[in-house]
Amino acid sequence: MVDQQVLAYSYKGSADTLLAAVRKACVEMNLNVSDEQVTPTAFELTAGEKTNWLSTNWPVKFNLKAEPVGDTVALTIRGASGMGSITQSNNNANKAQGLLSLIAAYAPNP
Predict the structure, then answer these.
(1) What rounded mean pLDDT belongs to the chain?
(2) What is the pLDDT of residues 79-104, one digit of tens each?
(3) Are the C-beta atoms of 56 and 25 separated by less than 8 Å?
(4) Helices (H) and strands (E) in the chain, counts
(5) Is 98 exposed, middle or buried (0-12, 13-18, 19+ CB in 10 A)?
(6) 109: CB partners within 8 A, 6+ apart
(7) Which entry of 8, 22, 42, 95 is 20 to 30 Å from 15 by CA?
(8) Which residues, 6+ apart, have CB-to-CB distance to 90 below 8 Å?
(9) β-bridge partners, 72
(10) What pLDDT score was predicted for residue 58?
(11) Residue 73 pairs with which residues in a beta bridge?
């Protein structure tokens, strides 16, 4: 993968609520979820954009992993593309930040 972006979110609620927010954010961003592993306290999923042949950027693929850490759930978002372009780094960063912002909006900390 080229130019990987890594972001984190510390959620002070249940993993189920965070998972629902992640799924909703993926739908909002038109990401296809291709792989999902869920346990009662943790989850990991892979979601990616469809290829847009008219864009100057390659599709971004995300790996979202949540695991309990004390009384919080730590979410790690890794976003990357398979190829690079002149604008790819900014595109990856913007998409990862947008996904994190949606998740935080759908699952705000109390």
Answers:
(1) 90
(2) 988 777 777 788 888 899 999 999 99
(3) no
(4) 2, 5
(5) middle
(6) 10, 11, 12, 13
(7) 95
(8) none
(9) 69
(10) 77
(11) 11, 68
pLDDT for 71 beyond 70: yes
Domain ranges in the chain? 2-106
Q: Which CATH architecture has domain 2-106?
A: 2-Layer Sandwich (3.30)
Three-class SS of residue 8?
Answer: strand
> How many Å apart are CA 86 and CA 41, to the nearest integer?
40
- Answer for the pair 25, 13: CB distance below 8 angstroms, yes or no: no
For 14-108, where are the E strands, in sequence order?
32-38, 43-48, 60-69, 72-81
Q: Are 45 and 36 in contact (CB under 8 A)?
A: yes
With CA atoms as reference, report the closest residue to 6 among 83, 70, 62. 62
Determine whether 64 is exposed, middle or buried from the number of CB atoms within 10 Å of its CB (0-12, 13-18, 19+). buried
* Residue pair 78/6 in contact by the 8 Å Cβ criterion: yes
Tokens read off for 106: 């759908």
